[in-house]
Amino acid sequence: MRPAAFASPRVYSHGMGLFSRFHAVCRDKLRGVLAGAHVTAWRGVVGTAVRAGAAPGTTIATSGAPRPRRERVTLSLRKGDRVESFPAVVGQTLLEAAHAHGINVDGTCDGDLACSTCHCVVGSAAVYNTLPRKLPQEDDLLASAWDVGETSRLSCQIRVTDTMHGMEIRFPNMLPESKRRSAAPQGVQVSGAPLFAEEEAIAPKKFRNITQSAIPKIFKQYAHENDFLRTNLDHFTAMASILPFRTNNYVVDELIDWKRVPDDPMFQLNFPQPGMLDDAAGVAAVAALKSSGRPSREVRAAADEVRAKLNPHPAKQREMNVPSYQSDEGEQELERGMQHKYRETVLFFPSESQYCHSYCTYCFRWAQFVGSASTQFASNSVEELCDYLRRNRNVTDVLFTGGDPMVLNSRQFGRYVDAITSDPSLEHVQTIRIGSKSLAYWPYKYVTDDDADDMLRLFERTVQRGRHVSFMAHFSHPVELSTPVVRAAIRRIRDTGVQIRSQAPLTNHINNDPNAWVDMWRTQVKLGIVPYYMFVERDTGAKEWFGVPLSRALDVYNQAQQQLSGLARTARGPSMSCTPGKVHVLGTEEINGERVFVLKFLQGRNPKWTDRVFFAQYDEKASWMDQLRPAFGADKFFFEDELVAMERASTTGSGSSGQMFQTDDDLYATA
Q1: Is 644 within 8 Å of 652 (Cβ atoms)?
Q2: Could you give the CA distance from residue 604 to residue 639 in angstroms, rounded to a whole number?
Q3: Which residue of 377, 488, 608, 640 sits 20 to 30 Å from the alpha carbon of 446, by its own alpha carbon?
Q4: Which residue has the higher pLDDT, 28 or 110?
């Protein structure tokens, strides 16, 4: 019998679950009709028929004997230079047809228009022109897809019709055969009776994705008297075309204080602001293209020019973090969906989760969401992940990141986690980390969503298999901890045996205030969360808008720590996740008449750097490691020569820095 602490707020779960399933069935039936999957059955009966995708009221004449209606068609799948035929059932979505044939393409949101992972390119312009018109939301999501063409659509929104017989189709997100999906391990339970008993009443909320085309409507609905929003609308929509933008109904309904807009911290955190980027000319060019109604490809090209200047991959992630191995042919192969910067920790980026419930405007991983294959880390190969972990037995921690791995459902996420925890050869992997903003942006996932209990079962199962699970929660402001549903979600996750740790960057316009951090850390301890990191805003994206000088960051941190009990003083900071490693700004001192920053490696690319203290000249304007200069007349910091040698080795076949140090006795050869 489960303890009372496992009680659930899902008062309406059974009834609402039935209603949701009934609604989903009705929705899918309606989509099929609207897509023209069945209208051909009327031909020859009434003399006219609605053409799939035609404007309302449009008809086409039918004469003579009715054309036989196909129940199945054959589609041609483009795979580079090859074309492979596969069958599809009329009425299926193109995504369903692909999955039925085992084609390795993602579709994370199950057709709810919350992601672009199922993007496809239709090979027939004639068929494309008969498809139902795109909703504005689909257009917005395609803007974040990569390799978009003139005939691109989301395959979850397109029903197979008999006119598609012989049509070519291409899935840009499809992974090679060597990276195919694998099923969950045999015997894994993925559903069952409700996990928890009932407790307090928290009404379910249906997730509603909000994209850039909805900005005018949102502003009118929530702040119609706000002159600033009205007069700067073009700038807001232009910025949302450059920096990734998406939010949801929980954030706009329950977290943003619309009376304080634009100064409200949650509004600043979710809506890209006019003036957020220094490239005024570039932003103006994007705004002009949008306001004149130019095609989305032109807007995207102009936005890409602005993005290219924003340092999309800070701290040499691409050059030094991506692991590699030698193929059977002797060639260097890169593990595109992983990063291995530190010896003990591997980051994995599930391709299905390269988006979030809402995007943070300060996000240092913004390049994951702008639709460029060259800027994205992603993989959905369980086999490659497990093989890599077997080859690197010093790895104790796997961090699932993105995007946000918690946009996945329990079946999708369990495919990765269960593969690790059920494999006796991976006992050296002790900790599963989950980097997620979902508690702040969509806590209903763990409380009233249909998959809530199954996700908590997955957490519980992982703990019972002897693994430590650390939920790395991103909380940026106290208001994110204030609602009843987030507190219920925190309680339910902790009751599975999972530990929740919190981290966030110190950012101007959002939490550049000691009292905000005092409030956050006190509340987190009260709710059973362990404060973990205060980060320094990274040198990417809207750095000039959000960045805070190191001297100010140190003042905020110290003033907050002085107001807390020992249990709340567990957060380390200010910490820079920079190229050589995690560098902690310990304080300032005057030594031999020189004022200096006292710095310490919390973690280094070379493990021997960890815990080493070093000094930099004090600079009240410096906000990042590369703006600091060595103290006491030194020409360079102690690690610089070795770091250069590491980068050279990484780019010439030695792999990532995490692969270079297999034991504590390893000495890296700089020659």
Answers
A1: no
A2: 10
A3: 377
A4: 110
- Give 233's contacts (C-beta < 8 A, 6+ positions apart): 215, 216, 219
**Other residues' Cβ atoms within 10 Å of the Cβ of residue 70:** 16
How far is 645 from 641, CA to CA, in rounded Å? 6
**Count, residues in the chain:** 671
550: three-class secondary structure by DSSP = helix
Do 338 and 379 contact (CB within 8 A), yes or no?
yes
What secondary structure letter does DSSP report for 272?
P
Segment 471-482, tens digit of pLDDT: 999 999 999 999
Helix, strand, coil proportions of the chain in percent (round to 5)? 40, 20, 45
Q: What is the mean pLDDT of the chain?
A: 85
Q: How many CA atoms lie within 13 A of 671 on its CB side?
A: 1
Percent of the chain with pLDDT over 70: 83
pLDDT tens string 596-623:
999 999 999 999 999 999 999 999 999 9
The DSSP symbol for 665 reads T
Instruction: Collapse the DSSP code of 5 into the 3-class scheme (helix H, G, I; strand E, B; otherwise coil) and give the result.
Output: helix
In 219-294, DSSP assigns E strands to: 247-248
d(CA 491, CA 21): 27
How many Å apart are CA 570 and CA 566, to the nearest integer? 8
CB 611 within 8 A of CB 617: no
| Kind of pairing between the strands at 72-79 and 168-170 | parallel
Contacts of 442 (CB under 8 A, 6+ apart): 207, 248, 250, 357, 358
CA gap 358, 261 in Å, rounded: 18
Euclidean distance between CA atoms 411 and 459, whole angstroms: 12
CA 487 to chain centre: 23
Phi and psi angles of residue 169, each rounded to the nearest 5 degrees, phi first: -140, 145
CB 401 within 8 A of CB 349: yes
Give the global pTM: 0.82
Question: Quick one: three-class SS letters along 77-92?
Answer: EEECCEEEEEEEECCC
Q: Which amino acid is at 612?
A: R
Question: What's the start-to-end Cα distance of the chain, in Å?
Answer: 63
Residue type, 218: I
Q: What residue type is 478 in one-letter code?
A: P
650-668 tens-digit pLDDT: 988 889 999 999 865 554 4
**Angle at alpha carbon of residue 650, lines to 646 and 653, rounded to 5°:** 135
345-348 β-sheet, strand order: 338-342, 345-348, 397-400, 431-436, 468-474, 499-506, 530-536, 572-577, 581-591, 594-604, 613-617
Task: State how far Cα 521 lies from the chain centre.
Answer: 25
Cβ atoms of 93 and 155 within 8 Å: the answer is yes
pLDDT band at 375 (very low <50, low <70, confident <90, very high): low
For the four alpha carbons of 274, 250, 246 and 549, in that order, the dihedral sign comes to positive
